[in-house]
Design goal:
By secondary structure, the chain is an all-alpha fold. Helices cover about 35% and strands about 0% of the residues.
Amino acid sequence: MANFFPRWTNLLPVKIVLCLGVLGAGMVVGFTYYATPKALRVGYQPSQPIPYSHDLHVRQLGMDCRYCHSYVEYSAHANVPAASVCWKCHSQVAKGSPALAGLRAAMGVDEDHQPLEGEAAKGLPIEWVRVHKSPDYVYFNHSAHLNRGISCVSCHGRVDQMEVVYQAESHSMGFCLDCHRNPERHLRPLEEVYNLDYEAERYLAEHEVHDADGNRITSQKEFGRFLKEHWSVLPRESCAACHR
């Protein structure tokens, strides 16, 4: 009796498996490359249209984070400063610097701070490149964290020491859950939230803080536990906390 199926069908299952494997691998690679934002990768450090050194402005000059990110303690989002905020200083400081050409263009003036003509006089917005960005399906409220003792350092690292801002932490779901499960590792007094050079042991050496039993607190673990109980910090660990 003749074979019902042609001989080439003997290899058909193997070919199907190989094709499906290649297709699946291609989809994984493609999704990873195209659908995963670079801003979610630790070390992501894009170039900005105007070189801005946080090390100079924050660490050396002592500028507070809230001078530029003025809504961060009141809003869910940390705003990027408008050109007018930068212009308050740089209309007088480093006026002719080539590095500030983008700022002058945004304000509609030339190197001598004379108004430009035509459309250029309207100014061009500074197109800052965003470094930190959560997926659209993730809800994160800056004010809720900052007003309960979580500093910028916990999520963004020592920004005050950065010449160019980069992604210091992964901001993955595991990263967030680890903090929600152990918030005492990050809690600090509200007046120290924007002090990026804060150290718990140094603070506790200068300020006497005692627990409910009257024992002096000397470590971050003890201090964080004290603040957690004092403020009734109960971070949610369910999916609904961030995925809304």
